[in-house]
Amino acid sequence: MAEANIDPNDKEFQQFKAVIGKDGNGLGTDANVESGYQGAHHLEEHCSTAGFVAEAAADGTLSNFTTLDATGIYKLG
User: Fold this and answer.
1) What is the rounded distance in angstroms from the CA atom of residue 27 to the CA atom of residue 37?
2) pLDDT number for residue 19
3) What is the rounded distance in angstroms from the CA atom of residue 25 to the CA atom of residue 45?
4) Are 45 and 61 spatial neighbours (Cβ–Cβ below 8 Å)?
């Protein structure tokens, strides 16, 4: 079972509906379609070489951000 955000006023849902409407070849806007879309849409963010570490307080706030140097992991050419 999956949940989908189908709030027509939500900007992410509007973007999802526009992309699926243009490129979805008749797909609907149910939770399964949205789940697949989100995975592909956010793949870019997870494949980035940018990253950070932060300290988390009990209430969920983050502080003391430190960027990670990933240049030794990713080399082009």
Assistant:
1) 11
2) 82
3) 26
4) no
